[in-house]
Design goal:
One of its GO terms (cellular component) is cytosol. By secondary structure, the protein is an alpha+beta fold. It is built from six helices and four strands. Helix 1 packs across helix 2 and helix 2 crosses helix 3.
């Protein structure tokens, strides 16, 4: 019995997913042609993948560089408490800061990793001083400025 994550899905499903990752707005008839199915069968497979939660939704891929600015930083955050209430308070407040594109709890010698986008370093300094450093239960931070994005 196969135990890998793909065992429930056949090659057609994986091919459909591959094409939808590249273009979530692809017309069903074109997708069907690309994977070798009838439009009806293709639509049924896509619906099944949606119902199973494999396809969570469809979204636009935004060029954050053009929209939010070219300066990107990663911020390591060490908490002064990792109790459930402290983590919940931090999570709730970090969600309110639009410049923080991503926030991940990390199993390391720090607690969170934030991806922050700003127009420039002056803007980042303002975001850091006014928003990030005032987050609840933050003990220490370290900022890493991105020089070049090799792969997003």
């Amino acid at each position: 019995m196969k135990t890998d994550i793909y065992s429930e899905f056949n090659k057609l499903d994986l091919n459909i997913i591959k094409h939808l990752r590249q273009d979530g707005r692809i017309p069903n008839s074109r997708l069907a042609d690309m994977v070798g199915l009838s439009a009806t069968a293709c639509a049924a497979r896509v619906k099944h993948l949606e119902k199973k939660g494999i396809i969570k939704g469809y979204t636009a891929i935004i060029d954050d560089h053009l929209l939010l600015g070219e300066n990107m930083a990663f911020v390591q955050v060490t908490m002064n408490s990792t109790s459930a209430p402290a983590l919940e308070a931090f999570n709730r407040e970090v969600a309110k800061i639009s410049e923080i594109e991503q926030c991940h709890m990390i199993a390391a010698n720090f607690d969170y990793l934030l991806k922050v986008r700003s127009v420039n370093m002056t803007d980042y300094r303002r975001i850091f001083a006014d928003k990030i450093s005032t987050l609840p239960h933050v003990k220490q931070t370290s900022t890493f400025i991105v020089m070049e994005s090799v792969k997003d």
